[in-house]
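for ur thesis appendix - Glutaminase. copy paste whatever u need, i formatted it the way the template wanted (i think)
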Amino acid sequence: MTDLVQNYLDRILAEHEPITEGVLADYIPELAAVDPTGFGLALSSSDGYVYRCGDADTEFTIQSVSKPFTYALALQKIGAPAVDARIGVEPTGEAFNEISVDDETKAPKNPMINAGAITAISLIPAATPDARFALIRDFFSACAGRPLEVDEAVYESERTAGSRNRAIAYMLDSFGVLDGDPDEVLDVYYRQCALKVTSTDLARMGATLARTGLNPMTGRRVIDPAVVRRTLSVMLTCGMYDAAGDWVSAVGMPAKSGVGGGIVAVLPGQLGIGVYSPRLGPKGNSVRGVRVCRSLSAQLGLHFLNVTRESRSTLRSVSDVGDGVRVYEVHGDLLFAGAEQVTRTAQRQHEEYTAAVFDVSRVDDINDAARTLLAGLAATLQTVGKHGFLVDPDGIVVPLDSPHRAAAYETVADAVAAAHTWLSTRPAAAVDD
Ligand code: GLU
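the 3d part is after this line
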């Protein structure tokens, strides 16, 4: 059976495929050698299911997408007051590699610019640079749910070409902001930036933040909820270089991009998204990555200020009422993530029933993306010889004045009776084996 959400995401990716604007980052020579056409998208639901599209399993270097995670690790290890004493949380509106600090405190303005990220590394308590890097790598791997490795060529390339970052590190050292030897801290920074990830990894790392620090795939708590809240806050205000304001308005998800072409975006409580496309726009963000995220947000209603009144499990109950009829009772506010859960469950279980009744009479609110998914579910079930019946007395999915209103039932009893009638009269050819 075709999967509705997978189809939808594949289509979004295909729509953006022809965009070739932007250029590869070349100030780190190895980055100019990657395949410019790579294009991957992965979306993890809050229960850890990952949809993968295009080159979702192609590895690339994490670069600045590492910054929020190292900041989270520093907060986790030494607490917010100690981190705040060295790194601010104010957006700068400056480029990522600007040699910039707060005029008065001399501390980097936020952890998403290089000055703040290099400082964050220096705050992670460890006896040696190797031990410090091991803590970072283990932490990133726990968020991704698999062990991550360094791209040695990219690491060497940046190490030998990094005079800008050396300038930043030595400036921070001169202000007494950096804990440790600047060259040692930088070496860890370059290794961290050269960690290899896929869009799928970024979606899982994003989902770990979406789940307030619990990796939904491994079930392991990796980050404290208060640390996640702080991390998402700076991602929201400072995550997209000097295009952060435009991003928040148009996409509305805490995010971080990197010059390797990756973007991680998080819809708190609901989704983690990873995108990869290495051609960058003038502000250093992946051109196709940003466009895909804009489309996803607009079409699926993912802006974080589209607030659901309650976020509870969408499926209230699933029950079999005899003769192959299964009733799914849906409740609460139904946005994309909730509808995804309902359609995925019904699709996954389709061999366990012949007719499915979807009761949305307890759904309080719904958006267009969820309505489209639920409306499409009946059609997709038909392709495998099953039939869906909708209980929708208030016109939540099929409006009361719609010409298709006859397809909706007032009560579960009515829909179950219709299902039985359909079962007894359907043509023999449609009978499943
Ligand atoms: N390693 C890169 C640098 O420090 C990361 C830059 C980025 O992704 O923004 O220049």
